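Worked example

This section walks through a single chain of length 454. The input is the sequence exactly as stored; nothing has been trimmed or padded.
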Amino acid sequence: MPVFLSGFALAEIGEPPPIKKLRFDEDYSYLRGIPWPRQWPDCWKYIPLGNSPDSYLTLGGEIRQRYEYTNNPTFGQSPQDSHGVWLQRYSLFGDLHWNRHLRFFGQLTSALETGRAAGPSPVDEDELEWQNAFFDLSSNDWSGGTATARIGRQEIVFGSGRIVDVREGPNVRRTFDGGRGFLITPNWRVDVVAARPREDRRGVFDDKTNDTQALWGIYSAMQNPLPYPGNLDLYYLGYENENSTYVQGTAHEDRHSLGARYWGEQDNWDWNWEALYQFGHFGSGKIRAWTLATETAYQWPDARWQPTLKLSVNIASGDNDPENSDLGTFNPIYPRGNYFSEAAVFGPRNFYNFHTFLYLQPTEPLALTVDLNFFWRLEKEDGLYSPSGQIVRSPDDSDAHFAATALSLTAEYTLCRGLVFTAIHTFGMPERFLRETGPSEDLNFTELTLQYRF
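Given that input, the structure is written out below as tokens.
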């Protein structure tokens, strides 16, 4: 195997940490004391900066090449790309640990797009920008845990990403400007956050803080706090948007979310259940909204290909009277971009669905997934929305609920540590609501991705 693909010499230096969605959560301090020379990329993961073992630099990055082709985008509603879209993402980061109390993490990212018929969307292209640029001040002896204050530009994920996520699927990941404090102990973690999202622009170092939106709140995660298996997250998140748009109209939105997430695994079972209630104001009206999301999976580890079957049942409220100033539409705030599939047509507002998954592992590097999604809108007076909150389809006096059926096939092959090839095809069939309210062609989405993270 070529040296640049050889990965870590596991037999010599032990097991490396997993490559994470948030690269600043990776800890390579286990490499201290390992003599040089080291293989790629070990040579960049722990660079001593002095005699102290707590003073070191970690370097890394990402190269992602993605080709997408959609036949009949948004079921024929959006412009047709002639030959598909080529999306490129490049990233380099440096993680400087000055000592055990002071740290700086900086990450530059370039996202490029070619071929979109309507031109690049805000999540397609950002030529060069700071994705992360923050300082950490930490105390390692605070009530049996580690307390950290983080200031600057930073990616944020809470829980499983249903409510706040970096938006990994699209080419441009989401990030925030602001402050975050967190306390971590062996059994629980508490985060306090006050931040505004970055306003993504297409040029070089031209992004700025989005002053029309804000996020604040507290998120706590507890390990096995109940007398039966499972972990519990409890949280409050506040959100403000000066120009929110729903079928009802556009107005100032001030929304508060109270949520609980119960998740874990035991024996061959795995579960992730979440409930959330929202209140606040939209213009002159009141907000009353809610959602319930469940994922339950069972694996047969001793069977051939180790099959896992997962059922996801979800529902989110919609608005039942657009003429009334009160708003009932749920807002997922800053969710993952590929919420239901990589095709990313619909988002979790005014809907209910049944989503089944079958996972197969024919060989250690190869994973296969088949999933089938039946998607309805909940309130017939409200429409359907994209993951970012844009109105995909207005109600147009249709009383139909059934909106779409989607079948996805995914193959993921890990060539070596950090290097993964993914092929996805999604077939979407419009159902009665889409057929009654506008273009309703069958959707076919193909994605080929080669991603190397080091």
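What to look for: The CA atoms of residues 85 and 393 lie 24 Å apart.
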